[in-house]
Amino acid sequence: LEAARTLFFAEGVAAVSTDRLCRQAGVSKSTLYKYFGDMGGVLTGVVRREGDSFTTGVMTAPDTADAFWCSLITYGTNLLTLLNQPHCIQFDRMLHEEARQRPEISRPFYDAAYGRSHQDVTALVAHGQARGYSRKPQPAEWLADNLISMWEGLAFTRTRLGLADRPYPDPPGWARHCVEVLFEGDMRS
Known about the structure:
Layout: H1 2-11, H2 18-25, H3 29-36, H4 39-55, H5 65-83, H6 86-101, H7 106-112, H8 114-130, H9 140-160, H10 171-182
Helix pairs in contact: 1-6, 4-5, 4-7, 5-8, 5-10, 7-8, 8-9, 9-10
């Protein structure tokens, strides 16, 4: 995964052959296919590992309202901090470009990145609703979709297009602001 990450981030997924990846990683093709199936599986593994870095430290079933709001804000802060990283911005640009030429990479990337975030935040919001920390009547899935959209906003799009160097000057402040706006009336400051 580390060899794939290095090659993918430097050159893009399309530029990396299985032969080259196997040489770089020091493994056989049969080992790669056994553990990952194909290059889509390798891409999924790389993206999942990146995702693991920003979900670390986020409680998934907080037992108090304060812990719930803290977990939601921490998740957003960690996500925005990751999206601020130059390697993440470059990788996102490459994947969006390559998806047009190789649509088969779109689903594994979406599922391991955007889809995973949506599932994580949906589960956290649903937990908060079940415990009464949020009284919003909308489904947790809808609230999670809106919250992630607010967190990313147009800032990431501007950066992806090269109109800005870094999307989020204050990840903790922006993450908190978005949670406060979406869950107005639920969150105690």
